[in-house]
Design a protein that fits this description.
Elements: E1 6-8, E2 12-16, E3 19-23, E4 30-35, E5 41-44, E6 49-53, E7 56-61, E8 64-70, E9 79-82, E10 85-90, E11 95-98
Antiparallel strand pairs: 1-2, 2-3, 3-4, 5-6, 6-7, 7-8, 9-10, 10-11
Amino acid sequence: MSGSSLALGRFLWATTDRGVVALDPASGSIVRRIMLPKPSAVAVDGAHVWALAPDGLYSIAGTKASRRVALGPGVAGLLVAARGIVWLSDGATNTLRRAV
């Protein structure tokens, strides 16, 4: 599994070339797989799991990913979430912006 982003909540979340996986932190076993095209980042804010893909920002619940914000080309970059607020780096404008 190759990943470019990790986030720790109840599970350890990791991006892969085919989606996002959740691992049990104690055993390292994969407990969930979420199909998502080429995610670049994942973040956890305690209540929510967020993933950044080329076409948008997704919220993850169970094994489903729902696009919450559509993004244009070149936007996907870094992602951070806390207290229900999500920030991402916009590579197209070289800025940080609040997404949710």
